Amino acid sequence: MSILSDLHTHSTASDGQYTPAELVGLAKERGLNTLAVTDHDTVDGICEAVLAGKELGVRVLPGIELSALEYHTFHILGYGIDPENPTLAELCRRMKARRNERTGRLLAFLQEKGVALTAAEVEAAAGGEIIGRPHFAQAMVRRGCVATNREAFDRYLDTEEYYQRVERGKPPVKECIAAIRAAGGMASLAHPYQIGIGDDALEKLAAELAGHGLEAIECYYPKHTPEQEAFYLYLAEKYKLYITGGSDFHGEKVKPDVKLAALELDLGWMTKTAWSGGC
Ligand code: AMP
Ligand code: ZN
Ligand code: FE
Ligand code: FE
Question: Which of 8, 108, 250, 273 could serve as a FRET partner for 259 with CA atoms 20 to 30 Å apart?
Answer without folding.
Answer: 273
